[in-house]
Design brief:
Length: 211
Amino acid sequence: MELDENIITTLSSGNLITRAIIDLVAILIMVCIYYPKHKNKDFIFTFFLFNVVNFMICILLASAKIKIGFAFGLFAMFSIIRYRTIAISIKDMGYFFVCVALAMLNSLAAVDDKYIILIICNALVLFLAFFLERLSFLKNENAKDIVYDKVELIKPELRDELLLDLNERTGLNIHRIEIVSIDYLKDVAVLKAFYYAKESENHLPNSKDND
């Protein structure tokens, strides 16, 4: 079976090397955006591994006449992979999604314009990641469960006094609370306190074996 002109171009050694260089540079820049703020070496290993493996799979399978539906299926398969040891945060999943997307973009995109549009698309994705990672004017609303011993202050009319007492005890600028439970036998209440911070402090729990 003869390969058409576009497939031959994809498989040429010069085209493969150029695409691989663009992809490696892109994933290196993404890691440089991610690591200074998150300091998670395990995810760096994952980003590189999945990006490179996905890139090789896509560029080698380009020699077959694969329909666009298969490409989307492969993309979906990689993007929904879930680790069994930990629950991945939304932001880490976003980075994981980008590293897979970059591999598919750099391996399958048409390059009739000598890679100009491909490089621009890579630069745009990386710029958005850099910009959104460093947004400082948006705050995260974090929450903590607090076992509180002054149950007399949980009355609605004493809410200001309750907030003042919690702020003094915790050192947090708590702006609202929710009552989770009340134990009048022990004179304690479980409260969920909400406060703003620059970074999210709400950690996802470990996944269980029976999830």
